[in-house]
């Protein structure tokens, strides 16, 4: 009897552990019968050992449904590529986040509602009842004015519109303001849906693979590997749908993947729906302007960007790219320099649009004679080089180097540096101090560098690439950069990432380091699981989707250099697991919180800076990618 | 093609599904239809199907699995941000305090005192596995912050970090114990009937997003998912014909929460049937018997070693509190609903009521046991467990409103099917169950979570799409259509009425009683439906 039970349990033990063997076809058949025994086994069984989605072939044979597939596929309809479902699902999650933590930005926006509700326009930018003074351009103030007038009576009673130094409010105010974020974000969904709907097969997709220069160069190295893959694929070709997935996905599907990845961005979830800001709709306007550029409506593009600038002036960082693009497309169109001539009609129109927008926005305040006041509100240079929490940029590395140098040289009588307040000035101990003009010129220099290629060939891809490049430059070298500005790089980047596999290799470390560096924004423990899991799910979903299905790889092979870089990037990504764990552990300990934050921001800064170097390389030296 | 089949079915002049004729005819068709590969899940055009459609071409579903498990956890974590039972409600607080208190006493006291310590303040009243689980969580929690679990000093502790920690233990327990067997169950069912792999993902996701469990475990705060997960592991192992392991997991489930007793008659009859039919298998019988005894022994061993048989006796007294009355609060079962018209508690003594309750329960579960005993087929597992546990919920003694989770689990497992009728009724009964917990959730200020999670699940299953209303959301037969529509109308009416008139002075319990009276008949009807299906499907080849 005992023997019998023993036999049973041993059998199960063996089968349990058979899952942990490397995956061979025999092993698959064993583990496939017995994954049910251990809960952990079920969760882990195939995924870890199935590095490609396309490993499905073996599984089909086991299931013995191979013969079913074509017929099944016969009536599988094509899904309409609509973001409505994404919006509804997102809404459910965002509604549940009502009870989550919100930062002081919530009080900031509440105060702005109160200011715009109670005061005449003349006093909007002079009121200092609360320390959270209005410091966004006037369109945003108008927006707050609209929100304050839509406020239901029950919310007003709750204290949503009290013009006081420190507001006291309850759930109704939170619910109302959170709902305004969700509703205003519809604009982002609309812009993204427009992007999907107006996508058409571009020229590049129709070209044959061989026409690309890279292929001929590497042809010899591909051949061997290609034969192998084709061998494996031969079984797939029997089934129409499986075979269909091997061909290039349509432009619309790719556009849908890009659009959904933007609207589901963990950055927007963390910043807008937990931390509390209104970035969603502003990125919506920005995306709409890019889509307008792609659809050959440069005037609309310019108008939308002008409106965007009047909502939030941080987008000024992208203005050089827009300026050069519009200059080359509207003002002096034409591809070769011989045929250059000025298009007066469109130039005047564009000028009227931009000037008109700015007049509507700033006109009243010019009339009140408050331009100086407005300027000091919008550009407060009194703040320090870095934010209290270092944004993962060049200055984070610089500050870190200074800290290390101070620690090393302490014994030799160096002054301890790095004194700072919340918005105070930063003084370095060893390295030279950085002035605002230094950061300004550095930013400008890199931005100008990125504008050269756009000036030569103002294609849509170049344009989006240049926006990304400008955002990179300003994020890395700008004065008092917030970690939230990382979205300004990631969002335009997403729109070009599917053009080439190498761009994806740059995109992955950027998004990982960028989004993870947002985690300290939400420092409360309750939201930890939400932010971690959401970001994880987003990474899994989009990196797999982009990598295995959508990215167009013109060359079918990678060089040794790329392979090594890819490995390095992989290990860098894995490094985030201990970094995040460390920051969580250090968080609770006295005197150690800042160490955790520093490790996090310096480690992310390596990723962002590294991706900038790689991106610059691709942007400058691979013209084929940007046609 | 599914539409054609449905047309035939609905064209046949048998309005009520529980009419034997219509069913028999269907039954003859079923083997061919379940073998037929052209059928796809009726949920394929729901938003859930849409979200999983990128995984449609691949035959491995691990990518899809990552997705729906991650998003299920995200939703749970987001629900967990809300308040919990007894949050800042002195003097007694609620279930959250009970669980925390158990972590406190199990880590601070020797085993011999666990079941005796200050019984007035949430004395431990679950079987030993809960105590060990509490001990494990308590040990980890004490490592994080000892103040949360200071003996006596920490009573009613509502520290911010404590909430996070406790919520995390629920989430991890569920991830490790509940979610894997759900996936495995859906997989097995799919393989059994030759479904398309995406359809398995759809059904597994639909089961995992079940709103009732999310709200009770992550909103109200309990560890039901552990008990249900262990029971599910038993079901899954039954599916895979590993009876010894199945009985071990079932005993574990029973030793976690006594509520798993609702399943025990079926599992007993099923295993006994397997030992008798087709021929008597003594070896199997003995090995199962020994496993059960040994596993009980293993789970109670620390108690015996720590405090002798007294401890075990005290544990049993605490676990089965017959002195606590026929039901708690207001629960949508036979007794509580009937009490509105016929005052049981006034007419009969507690002993008499216990007797009646026992008799009724036995009478209700006997047919299930007999059917399962004579037909121990794996295909019947969810139907049998559903029928048996609904009978318990409706007729047995000492039922909570949260006990509805127990019958709801096997009922929800029925979503792993391609039969649109079953799916629509299972969705409906889930909604009924969630609605039956509305008074509880409202008391705990979980209104937002209640509406969002309920909406999310129904929307995911496509219940809000007008184009699916007549084809998929509502069942095919006129009778069930009336019942389902009637319930939804009643539900909306009750909620609107309660919103407009929160307090009616003459009848303080008006809305709660209305809730009970609306839900109890629905549960009873669904019980009959599962019973009927069990009877009807008994002859089919497994």
UniProtKB/TrEMBL annotation, chain A:
Pathway of action: Protein modification; protein glycosylation
Keyword field: Endoplasmic reticulum, Glycosyltransferase, Membrane, Transferase, Transmembrane, Transmembrane helix
EC number: 2.4.1.-
MF terms in GO: dolichyl pyrophosphate Glc1Man9GlcNAc2 alpha-1,3-glucosyltransferase activity
GO CC annotation: endoplasmic reticulum membrane
Subcellular localization: Endoplasmic reticulum membrane
Main location: endoplasmic reticulum
Catalytic activity: an alpha-D-Glc-(1->3)-alpha-D-Man-(1->2)-alpha-D-Man-(1->2)-alpha-D-Man-(1->3)-[alpha-D-Man-(1->2)-alpha-D-Man-(1->3)-[alpha-D-Man-(1->2)-alpha-D-Man-(1->6)]-alpha-D-Man-(1->6)]-beta-D-Man-(1->4)-beta-D-GlcNAc-(1->4)-alpha-D-GlcNAc-diphospho-di-trans,poly-cis-dolichol + a di-trans,poly-cis-dolichyl beta-D-glucosyl phosphate = an alpha-D-Glc-(1->3)-alpha-D-Glc-(1->3)-alpha-D-Man-(1->2)-alpha-D-Man-(1->2)-alpha-D-Man-(1->3)-[alpha-D-Man-(1->2)-alpha-D-Man-(1->3)-[alpha-D-Man-(1->2)-alpha-D-Man-(1->6)]-alpha-D-Man-(1->6)]-beta-D-Man-(1->4)-beta-D-GlcNAc-(1->4)-alpha-D-GlcNAc-diphospho-di-trans,poly-cis-dolichol + a di-trans,poly-cis-dolichyl phosphate + H(+)
Region annotated Disordered, chain positions: 217-240
Broadest EC class assigned to this enzyme: transferase
Membrane topology: Multi-pass membrane protein
One Pfam assignment: Alg6_Alg8
Similarity comment text for this entry: Belongs to the ALG6/ALG8 glucosyltransferase family.
Protein name, entry field: Alpha-1,3-glucosyltransferase
UniProtKB/TrEMBL annotation, chain B:
GO biological process: dolichol-linked oligosaccharide biosynthetic process; protein N-linked glycosylation via asparagine
GO molecular function terms listed in the Swiss-Prot or TrEMBL record: dolichyl pyrophosphate Man9GlcNAc2 alpha-1,3-glucosyltransferase activity
Subcellular location field: Endoplasmic reticulum membrane
Record has Transmembrane helix as a keyword: yes
Enzyme class: transferase
Start-end of Basic residues biased regions: 21-30
Record's GO cellular component terms: endoplasmic reticulum membrane
Top-rank taxon: Eukaryota
EC number: 2.4.1.-
Biased composition (Low complexity): 31-40
Transmembrane segments: 66-87, 165-186, 193-215, 260-280, 286-305, 353-374, 380-397, 404-428, 448-466, 478-498, 510-532
Pathway(s) of this molecule: Protein modification; protein glycosylation
Keywords noted in UniProt: Endoplasmic reticulum, Glycosyltransferase, Membrane, Transferase, Transmembrane, Transmembrane helix
InterPro entries xref list: Glyco_trans_ALG6/ALG8 (IPR004856)
Keyword Transmembrane helix on entry: yes
Membrane topology category: Multi-pass membrane protein
Record family assignment: Belongs to the ALG6/ALG8 glucosyltransferase family.
Record-given protein name: Alpha-1,3-glucosyltransferase
């Amino acid at each position: 009897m005992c023997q019998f039970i023993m036999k049973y349990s041993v059998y199960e033990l063996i089968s349990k552990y058979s899952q942990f063997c490397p995956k061979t076809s025999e092993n698959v058949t064993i583990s496939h019968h017995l994954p049910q025994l251990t809960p952990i086994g079920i969760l882990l069984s195939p995924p870890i050992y199935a590095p490609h989605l396309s490993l499905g072939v073996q599984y089909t044979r086991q299931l013995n449904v191979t013969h079913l597939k074509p017929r099944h596929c016969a009536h599988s309809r094509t899904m309409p590529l609509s973001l409505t479902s994404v919006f509804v699902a997102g809404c459910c999650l965002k509604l549940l986040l009502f009870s989550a933590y919100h930062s002081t930005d919530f009080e900031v926006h509440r105060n702005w509602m109160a200011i715009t509700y109670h005061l005449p326009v003349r006093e909007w930018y002079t009121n200092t009842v609360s320390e959270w003074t209005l410091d966004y351009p006037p369109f945003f103030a108008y927006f707050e004015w609209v929100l304050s007038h839509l406020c239901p009576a029950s919310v007003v009673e709750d204290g949503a519109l009290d013009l006081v130094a420190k507001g006291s409010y309850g759930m109704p105010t939170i619910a109302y303001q959170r709902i305004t974020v969700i509703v205003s974000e519809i604009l982002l969904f609309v812009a993204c849906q427009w992007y999907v709907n107006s996508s058409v097969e571009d020229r590049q997709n129709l070209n044959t693979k061989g026409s690309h220069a890279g292929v001929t160069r590497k042809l010899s190295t591909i051949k061997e590997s290609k034969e192998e893959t084709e061998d494996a694929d031969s079984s797939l070709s029997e089934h129409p749908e499986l075979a269909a997935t091997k061909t290039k996905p349509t432009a619309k599907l790719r556009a849908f993947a890009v659009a959904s990845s933007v609207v589901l961005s963990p950055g927007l979830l963390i910043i807008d729906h937990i931390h509390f800001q209104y970035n969603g709709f502003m990125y919506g306007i920005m995306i709409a302007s890019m889509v307008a550029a792609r659809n050959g409506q440069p005037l609309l593009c310019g108008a939308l960007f002008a409106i965007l600038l009047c909502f939030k002036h941080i987008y000024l960082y992208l203005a050089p790219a827009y300026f050069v693009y519009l200059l080359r497309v509207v003002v002096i169109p034409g591809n070769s320099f011989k045929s250059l001539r000025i298009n007066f009609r469109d130039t005047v129109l564009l000028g009227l649009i931009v000037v008109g927008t700015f007049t509507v926005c700033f006109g009243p305040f010019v009339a009140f004679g408050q331009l100086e006041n407005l300027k000091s509100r919008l550009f407060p240079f009194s703040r320090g080089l870095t934010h209290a929490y270092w944004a993962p940029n060049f200055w984070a590395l610089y500050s870190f180097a200074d800290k290390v140098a101070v620690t090393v040289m302490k014994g030799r009588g160096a002054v301890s540096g790095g004194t700072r307040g919340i918005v105070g000035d930063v003084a370095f101990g060893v390295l030279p101090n950085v002035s605002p003009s230094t950061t300004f010129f550095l930013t400008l220099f890199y931005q100008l560098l990125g504008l050269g290629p756009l000036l030569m060939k103002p294609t849509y891809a170049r344009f989006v690439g240049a926006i990304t490049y400008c955002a990179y430059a300003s994020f890395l070298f700008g004065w008092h950069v917030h970690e939230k500005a990382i979205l300004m790089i990631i969002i335009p980047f997403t729109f070009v990432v599917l053009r080439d596999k190498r761009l994806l290799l740059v995109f992955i470390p950027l998004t990982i380091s960028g989004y993870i560096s947002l985690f300290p924004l939400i420092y409360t423990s309750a939201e930890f699981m939400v932010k971690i899991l959401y970001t994880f799910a987003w990474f899994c979903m989009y990196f797999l989707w982009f990598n295995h299905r959508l990215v167009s790889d013109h060359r079918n092979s990678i060089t040794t250099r790329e392979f090594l870089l890819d490995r390095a990037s992989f290990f860098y990504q894995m490094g985030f697991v201990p970094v995040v764990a460390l920051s969580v552990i250090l968080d609770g300990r006295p005197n150690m919180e800042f160490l955790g934050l520093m490790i996090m921001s310096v480690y992310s800064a390596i990723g962002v800076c590294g991706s900038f170097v790689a991106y610059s390389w691709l942007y400058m030296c691979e013209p084929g990618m940007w046609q | 093609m599914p539409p054609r089949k449905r047309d035939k079915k609905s064209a046949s002049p048998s309005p009520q599904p529980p009419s034997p004729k219509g069913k028999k005819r269907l039954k003859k068709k079923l083997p061919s239809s379940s073998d037929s590969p052209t059928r796809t899940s009726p949920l394929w055009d729901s938003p859930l199907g849409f979200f999983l459609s990128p995984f449609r071409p691949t035959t491995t579903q691990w990518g899809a699995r990552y997705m729906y498990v991650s998003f299920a956890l995200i939703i749970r974590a987001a629900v967990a941000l809300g308040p919990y039972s007894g949050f800042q409600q002195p003097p007694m607080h609620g279930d959250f305090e009970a669980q925390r208190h158990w972590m406190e006493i199990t880590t601070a006291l020797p085993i011999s005192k666990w079941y005796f310590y200050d019984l007035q303040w949430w004395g431990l009243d679950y079987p030993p596995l809960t105590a060990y689980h509490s001990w494990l969580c308590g040990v980890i929690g004490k490592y994080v912050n000892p103040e949360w679990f200071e003996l006596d000093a920490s009573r009613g502790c509502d520290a911010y970090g404590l909430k996070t920690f406790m919520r995390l233990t629920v989430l991890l327990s569920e991830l490790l114990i509940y979610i894997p067997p759900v996936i495995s169950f859906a997989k097995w069912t799919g393989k059994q009937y030759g479904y398309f792999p995406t359809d398995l993902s759809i059904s597994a996701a639909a089961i995992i997003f079940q709103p009732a469990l999310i709200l009770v475990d992550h909103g109200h705060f309990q560890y039901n998912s552990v008990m249900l997960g262990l029971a599910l592991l038993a079901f899954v192992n039954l599916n895979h014909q590993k009876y010894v392991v199945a009985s071990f997991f079932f005993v574990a489930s029973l030793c976690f929460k006594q509520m798993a007793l609702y399943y025990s008659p079926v599992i007993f009859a099923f295993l006994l049937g397997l030992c008798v039919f087709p021929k008597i298998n003594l070896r199997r019988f003995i090995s199962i018997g020994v496993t059960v005894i040994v596993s009980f022994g293993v789970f109670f061993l620390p108690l015996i070693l720590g405090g002798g048989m007294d401890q075990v006796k005290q544990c049993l007294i605490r676990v089965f509190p017959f002195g606590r009355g026929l039901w708690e609060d207001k629960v949508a079962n036979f007794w509580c609903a009937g009490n509105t018209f016929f005052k049981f508690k006034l007419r009969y003594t507690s002993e008499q009521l216990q007797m009646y309750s026992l008799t009724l329960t036995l009478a209700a579960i006997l047919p299930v046991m007999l059917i399962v005993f004579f037909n121990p087929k794996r295909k019947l597992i969810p139907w049998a467990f559903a029928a048996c546990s609904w009978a318990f919920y409706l007729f047995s003694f000492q039922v909570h409103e949260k006990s509805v989770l127990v019958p709801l689990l096997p009922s929800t497992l029925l979503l792993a099917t391609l039969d649109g009728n079953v799916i629509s009724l299972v969705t409906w009964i889930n909604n009924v169950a969630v609605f039956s917990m509305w008074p509880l959730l409202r008391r705990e200020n979980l209104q937002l979570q209640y509406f969002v999670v309920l909406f999310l699940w129904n929307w995911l299953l496509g219940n809000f799409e007008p184009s699916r209303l007549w084809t998929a959301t509502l069942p095919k037969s006129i009778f069930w259509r009336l019942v389902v529509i009637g319930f939804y109308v009643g539900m909306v009416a009750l909620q609107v009425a309660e919103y407009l008139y929160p307090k009616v002075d003459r009848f303080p319990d008006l809305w709660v009683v209305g809730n009970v009276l609306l839900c109890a008949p629905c549960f009873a009807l669904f019980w009959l439906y599962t019973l009927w299906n069990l009877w009807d499907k008994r002859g089919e080849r497994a």
